[in-house]
Amino acid sequence: MGNSTGAWVVFFLSISSIFVSTSGQALPTCHGVEVLYTLIGNALQIYPNETLPENQVYRFEANITLTNKGYSTLDTWGVGLTFQHREVLVSASGLYPDDGRTLPANVSQGVILIPSSSQVLRNSIETAGDPGKIQRSYSIVGDEFGVPLNPMPRALNLTSTGYNCSTAQLIGVTTLHTCCVEPNSTITLTSDDTPLPPIAGDILVTYDVRQAYASNYRALVTISNESPYGRIDNWNLQWNWTEGEFIYTMQGARPKVADTQVCVAGEAGTNYPPSATMDINSAISCSTSPVIADVPLEKQNDTLVGNVKHCCRNGTILPAVIDPSKSKSAFTMNVFKLPPYAGDSMHLVPPSNFRIGDGVYTCGAPRLIAPSLFFSDSSLDYSENALKTWQVSCNKSTGATKPPPKCCVSFSSYLNDSIIPCPTCACGCAAKPQPTCSTTTPAMLLPYSALTDRPANRTDKAVVWANMNHFPVPNPLPCLDNCGVSIHWHIVSDYSKGWSARMSLFGWSNDTHPDWFAVVEMPKAMPGFEKAYTFNATQILASPSNTSFVVQGTPGYNNYLLGVTSPSVKTGVSMLQSIVSFAKGSTPGIDIKGKDGFPSKIWFNGDECAMPDTWPTSEALRMASPSTVLAAFLILIWTLSFGPLELL
């Protein structure tokens, strides 16, 4: 009886500690997920020593604690922190920035931290209040400037979909508190091994354990392109092992670095010395963070390097709308475990901190989902499950880490003599561009003769064209678009029963784009789409509103957009083009002279291109700048009041 009473006392004290801050103050009531940011100790002054107090650097340590005080289990989450003292995050145990940045990182503009491995927050009802299952705590270390006492964040929140967080409240001087109310009060009852529902993403990485032994297991890793139009080139998948695992063999892919010395001299060599049955010198990777790359297509049937379904695509994964058979890439590997886990065949832990696409994509933590089902390739009606399956969802990075576009679009029409060019700095600009130019001034209209000129050679023609047509000439002039690929859309004709446009692709860089594709979105015109004459163009019926068509080159004819250094390119620009025709019967009232004849969005090889913010028209004033419109209006008022102006 005494032992039972003691256990309950410990249990009660554990639960009670959840409701009291480190300062001793009671925390506000929370029916949801409670998030605490608690400063540990005093900020510590570190080098360099500065004379100005606001520039002095201090080290700080803090704990982030999440407690599920609601009804529902929380399986996917991130903690948002808004800092205010020029903070630099140096380490975060078990957490990492959701935008894929490595630590140390400048987080002065805020950061969202997500768990490196799946960290499910169960609810108290299904766990009988077990603190080890309803609560998670993490330590972070960083630097801040100018605040020797209690440097706290400005805001704190939970980023899980549907949760509504209260304004962060300071408890004492070292604890920041917020309560995030769940979207509903439905009680969820799960266990530690309950599979989570699959989630969506631009890229899904599936980690299937197919076979397990005491010291090692066989895994199948599948990369699926789930983006509607995205294309993945040179996928380069990376992760961190959490328990010292190493890869002994691999088929369908290869590590980018063969680290035999690490295998022989490290823990792998100590625990698996060379023997008659296993030679550690043959291990393919012992890196704690291997970078895995695809192998060439010709290795597809190689029994040692390839021979895996969906393998060997040379790093390219197309969207399913282009070719469903090329929308996945896969490889298998034999993974060895280290003590104390080497003797347990069912101790299976996935890698953490997945990365893919060299910073273009941000990946979440692996989620345990229902085991994958594999059907037999034979005629037998037979299938088998994976022993365990984890899923990683990766999405294109957003915010400050989002890469700039790689392509841009320009417009013109037979109705107007000017080309509306790609936007200024469409694909990015240097912070201090040389020669000096404006990164914010709109691009200047161009004459048709400048269309095939390299962007750097268009400036003089743009200035002459502006002077000829009395357009304003800004000072400084706008910067270039800096895009390696541009797409020009020109309205060629407009008749009572149909109309046509010319779509031209220009390559301005040294990069060659094999098997290119483009997706053109035209909400008003799409019902009348007929065909492209020298491109292969088909309507995308799978899109939500059927407003887009996909364009590809004809194999052996124009399916390569060559780099400008290619011997086949004689004019300094690589160009492909085709007429695209539309009928008007199914689009009554379409305004070709307005914006209906121009795409609203274009993607090239999966990257969304920068679009102009206006379109050409036969009415000159609609293309003119606001200052030109104002001048014309004032002249009109003068003429109506006093008669026509006389030239001096």
UniProtKB/TrEMBL annotation:
Q: Which UniProt keywords apply?
A: Cell membrane, Glycoprotein, Membrane, Signal
What subcellular locations does the record give? Cell membrane
Q: Which InterPro entries match?
A: COB_C (IPR056900), COBRA_pln (IPR006918)
* An annotated GO BP: cellulose microfibril organization
**Could you list the residue ranges that cross the membrane?**
none
| Residue ranges of every copy of the COBRA C-terminal domain listed in the record | 406-616
The record's Pfam families line, in alphabetical order, gives: COB_C (PF25079), COBRA (PF04833)
User: What start and end residues bound the annotated signal peptide?
Assistant: 1-24
List the PANTHER family: COBRA-LIKE PROTEIN 7
Q: Which family does it belong to?
A: Belongs to the COBRA family.
Supply the name of the protein. COBRA C-terminal domain-containing protein
Q: Which gene name belongs to this protein?
A: LOC112278282
